[in-house]
Amino acid sequence: LILKLSPKERVLINGAVIENGDRRSRLAIVTPNAHILRLRDAIHPEDAKTPVKRVCYAVQLVLSGDTNSDDARHPLLRSIEELSQVFVDADSRKHLDVASHALVENDHYKCLKALRALMPREERLLAASH
User: Which residue ranges in the chain fall short of pLDDT 50?
Assistant: First the structure.
């Protein structure tokens, strides 16, 4: 895994917060199964108030090492299935399929990326319902 970090960007690696210096840098993570989360992408617990954000937060807990991936797999798959009941358009379904397959393959980064793509759509749906 190659991490490209902006100046002063923070990342959580195996429970330790690492802050980049004043210049852009690249880090090669050579340890397999290291728990890594970019803090700029992190959803804070108090912000996980919508269905998509709650699922993203749960995946994020696996990435940070706070939740065991084996224990989280079935509840996450169930949550993604529940999202598929709401996001019925073809493009959203594609993102949900990618997220499900990535989860089964233990590729939590890809899963999170696919789910995050649904956040703007969820925001529009919630705004339209008010």
Answer: none
